[in-house]
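Q: What structure does this chain adopt?
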Amino acid sequence: MFQSITYEVADRVAKITLNRPDRLNAISREVPSEIAHAVELANANDLVHVILVQGAGRAFCAGYDLKDSAEAPREQTGTQELPYDPFIDFQRMDRNTQNFQTLWRSYKPVVCKVHGYAVAGGTDIALSCDLIVMAEDAKIGYPPARVWGCPTTMMWVFRVGAERAKRMLLTGDLIDGREAERIGLVCKAVPAERLDAEVAAMCDRMKAVPKSQLWMQKAAINAAYDNMGMRTVQTIATVFDGLTRHSPEGLWFKSRAEEAGFHQAISERDSGAPILGSKPPRNN
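A:
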């Protein structure tokens, strides 16, 4: 049934586990639709009260599995030859966005357990959950905001407000669990050795609540975000995500990854030096 995740139900909790530990649970092509299918199964199961999302191995999720596509020739990957058609990118990425958002729209509450790293596209999964419990030494952030990416769910602004969302996305910095709790990005940060017990206790507390009660509280809160225009924001962010890969700097990043390797391109992107692909400044 699943290639890149596992799904199991025990004692009123459905566990969705990202299961590509050799790639730090990087998002393969199958992951978004498999998450959506697992959420559908959990919502249809009358025995399930709570959903838990977690990652196998050393990290929660290292983002999209982009190394191979970044290093492959452009015509073999999602980078288009010019002229650019934004609708092609939008269709593909909006499908992923809405699959991740099944966690947010789930009738049943979703708890996310973050250890190791939740970065780039991995944050789209984590931040689409209702409650996040994070190890204090874990790291979370969206480095592709610097070049070659825009978070399509744009859950940052809905979780921490405009100023702190800008602080994260205008720098692409990673922060640890302590800082994530301090700014309200996650519900709680605990020492790594206590993470499993803390998450289990939270699930235990909620699973005793009737499903109808859980749904009504969650639906009422989510309605406020719907009224704030969440879907509109995500549409814009998803269009922008495609544009970031076809801007002068995005095309430089792609060429550099093909030439020197994905990790070298990331190192140069994050070095603090001007991006070489940028257009020269105009003389005013």
